[in-house]
Amino acid sequence: MMMSRYASALLLIVAISTGRPVAAQTEPPQASGPRIPIISPEGAAQATQTPKEKEKETEKKEPSTYDKIWKYTEWYKNDSNPVVQRIQFSGRYQHDFAAVGAEEGDHDEWNVRRMRVGARATLYRAFTLHGEVELNPQERDPFYVRFTDLYLQWSRNTKLAVTIGKQSVPFTSDGSTSSKELIAIDRSNLANNMWFPQEYTPGVSVSGKIAPWVYRAGVYSAGAANREFGEFNGGLFTLGVLGYDFAKRLEVKEALLAANYVYQRPDPDNTFTRRLEHILSINFRFEANRWGVRTDVSTAAGYLGQSGMWGMMAMPFYNVTGKLQFVGRYTFLGSDRPNGLQLATYESRVVRGRGDEYNELYLGANYYFYGHKLKLQSGVQIADMNDRANDGGAYSGVSWTTGVRVGW
Fold first, then answer.
1. Each residue of 10-56: pLDDT tens digit?
2. Could you tell me if 307 and 337 are in contact, meaning their C-beta atoms sit under 8 angstroms apart?
3. Under CATH, to which class is 2-16+77-407 assigned?
4. H helices present in 183-296, as ranges
5. Taking the alpha carbons of 51, 52, 53, 57 in that order, is the dihedral positive or negative?
6. Exposure class string for 185-201: b at 16+ Cβ within 10 A, else e
7. 50 vs 57: CA distance, rounded Å
8. 3-state class of 247 per DSSP?
């Protein structure tokens, strides 16, 4: 039965990757995170170009249709204005079709996975004011879901940024990647269990890059969540991140090794977060010209009945062209006690119970029309979860998710 699932998965991947490409990009989309500049072969060859070749190069740099469309997201730009230098429209729209076939039942749905709109303003050449709200156009109540970002940031260069307000809390490999820039259609179940899926919480953080080092430190409120800043009635949690990018040494685009540590003061009113007191994640992001891999080894200690757990994830990818990319992923999770783990978004529509051991294989393909700003993603997940308690958490099935991702 499992072999037939693997065969079905491979057939689906072949099917979703045979579409005809449109206007190719010169570079495959790059992973998010700190970057080391790379001198391209094109730049090295400019000195020997003939006038005709230079004319062709100029033609290639003409704005594309996508450039002209996305230009409208820049509402205002005036570097000579001493108060407001720039105002940009920000947000994302992500729409999925998901189908799950499991021994425990079947499910399929069309789903607006994420819809967020807002604005980002650059003020006094050093401040960024950013606010976004999440909306749910599928349902009238609630149409307004929550504020995601609402923060003020001060920064004069990449070495130091100070941020105060409701902001993203990045840790684990997938948890530190924006949903705009995920290379699998959704985050792994490791992030789903150990990261804080609310993602945006009120706090204060400092972050920066002093090449080749990157760092972040922050203190955040974990108290009772609401649609804005929460109730501030629970505990606090702290985040520390320290990473080193070996890209320059290895002469690749990225080779970032990072350690993430979270400590949370246990409190029954903490609902912005998972009930995890300590979380440690060691993750590595590597990308060469055509291929790369992301890995994560994480462990967490629970409180108030939540079991401790640990897990690992490996996600290799290959850029077939500047637009077509194949992605694989293996995820393993184990918990110390029964009922310590939960399933991912669409799997949990079929089985709502919890288990204690989870294995997943993901095979996917991405087609980038305009980098991460406009892409089509599709992937098949083959997953099993054991349930020692035998109380409704066992799962064995195949799910297929296809979606369009638009970011601005």
1. 444 334 333 333 333 434 454 443 333 332 333 333 333 444 444 55
2. yes
3. mainly beta
4. 189-194, 247-250
5. positive
6. bbbbbbbbbbbbebbbb
7. 10
8. helix
